[in-house]
């Protein structure tokens, strides 16, 4: 494994010598104890290191001012913008500096720069427009992830698949990512969440543009750092945001940009379920008020549309899975 990564690093060095510009964006909030080590660990083939200090209160700005590295560009935000706002500021700066690929790393030391080549090469080889880490393949390292956080990731991963249309990816809140700069111009930053829904909202936007997204298996790394993401906050806020994203995606992909069998299955399946539910509830309440049992025919009229509707929606899901983007943009 080490030798394989070494070969990839050599190839990246050669590509950088030919003009490939790699930038790393690091959003920072109260990471005074970690940020120096994170920056020191970034390989030399990275030309630009953009550190966005998101109005930290622990003296992170003082640590950043003491770092001597000509690659480092520090953006000081006077007001806290959230991780999404900080990353978007970094993306904008990286694009202005001429970066071809932008990597996003957190400032708390949870992301090992040794795995940068794994994120970069699918984009370099035109196999993906966006790559992201996935901690769920490595069972040994995964045991270091807090249990509640692990369960939350499993649930959110499934909901994110529905909302984004990327049925081939997992671990949506993983912030270790790399992005082909050419796709940035097609994304409206106003649609990107400024807080912890950032990575998921970016996936949704990439899906609407049919960008190719690829998972890269990177072990989890948890130490003394404390995550600012509240598990309760995620459980309360993410589901409704994902629901809105799902509705928006389905309307745009299957009713605005195209009209296909998936569109017909969604309409007919939803209509059948609504009819069966309404019919069943109406006659159930009517039966209670009149103290009468529903006839077999009445029950069947309620049940059959529900069964058919569920089958139609499941078929729509199957076809949606088959519609995952595979053609790299800009190829």
Short description:
It is built from 11 helices and 7 strands.
Key phrases:
alpha/beta, 331 residues, 7 strands, elongated, 2 domains
Describe the structure.
With 331 residues, the chain is of the alpha/beta class. 50% of the residues lie in helices and 11% in strands. The chain has a seven-stranded mixed sheet with strand order 3-2-1-4-6-5-7, sandwiched between helices. Helix 7 (147-164) packs parallel to helix 9 (231-256) and helix 8 runs parallel beside helix 9 (231-256).
Give the strand tally: 7
Which of globular, elongated, flat, extended, rod-shaped describes the shape?
elongated
Mean pLDDT over the full residue set: 89
CATH structural fold name of the largest domain? Spore Coat Polysaccharide Biosynthesis Protein SpsA, Chain A
Q: Identify the CATH class of the largest domain.
A: Alpha Beta
> Structural class of the helices, strands and pairings?
alpha/beta
List the helices and strands and how they pair.
Elements: H1 2-17, E1 22-28, H2 35-40, E2 48-54, H3 60-65, E3 72-77, H4 82-96, E4 101-104, H5 116-124, E5 130-134, H6 139-142, H7 147-164, E6 177-180, H8 198-208, E7 213-217, H9 231-256, H10 261-290, H11 296-321
Parallel strand pairs: 1-2, 1-4, 2-3, 5-7
Antiparallel strand pairs: 4-6, 5-6
